[in-house]
Amino acid sequence: MVDTILVPIELPDPEPLSPVLVDDLSSLEVVLLGHYGLPEQTPAASARDQFGADAQATLDEVAERFAEAGAAVRTRLVFGKDRAAAIQEVAAEEDCVAELDPAPTDGIERILVPLPDVAEVDRLPTFIRILCEDSTGQITLFHVVEGEERREQGEAVVTETREQLIADGFDPDEVDTRVVEGEEHDEEILRVAAEYDAVVMYEAESRLGDRLFGTLPDRIANQTGDPVIVVNRDY
């Protein structure tokens, strides 16, 4: 069974999608979500009547690029004020197991994989492999030790995950590990992500600060310019 990934773009003027990412996702089923952001007082129905045809045409143009690359692609057009809610709703309705937070890239040489406090890979190898190219030479399994967790626990997480990836066919010379200690989990990931070309990570639990500062994947994409694939753990 082919995995389905959600690719959200912002309308009416979406940022160009990198050809590298379009090609990388060609083996998946792609749900292309066009989110048309609205001012607080604008009814969604009125906006759809006024802008729907043009928005769908723009969405179809982007979808055609995925189709030309060989991906099975379908589109969803949403008019609304809450982008995060739209992404969550469409991802659930379309049975998406991952989401791409796109960012411009010309090539992917180094991939960062932040890990939670349990060594489990599940669908991670699928999406790490999707981003791997001939130029990819390093996949770093990364863990932040914070709170009551001991460093040896963090080392065990990355070591066990590395062993699972190697068992899944990854080159041992290309998979390394990195553990840091820090009180600011997200800030440590953001700092290290700036050294890499792409990030693959599990979704994080929603927090109050997400609405104010954006989710961690959004912040990574916005602040570092790295495309981020967020893998759903609830399937």
Summarize the structure.
The chain is an alpha/beta fold. Helix content is 38%, strand content 25%. The chain has helices spanning 19-24, 44-68, 83-93, 124-131, 151-167, 185-193, 209-213, 216-224, and strands at 4-11, 29-37, 72-80, 98-101, 110-114, 138-145, 175-181, 198-202, 228-231.
The top level CATH class name of the largest domain? Alpha Beta
The appropriate CATH architecture of the largest domain is: 3-Layer(aba) Sandwich
CATH-wise, what's the superfamily of the largest domain? Answer: HUPs
**Main sheet strand line-up:** 3-2-1-4-9-8-5-6-7
Distance between the termini: 14 Å
Task: Report on the architecture of this protein.
With 235 residues, the protein is of the alpha/beta class. The chain has 2 domains: 4-96, Rossmann fold; 110-231, HUPs (Rossmann fold), CATH 3.40.50. It is built from 8 helices and 9 strands. Strands 3-2-1-4-9-8-5-6-7 form a 9-stranded mixed β-sheet, sandwiched between helices. The protein is globular, with a radius of gyration of 18 Å.
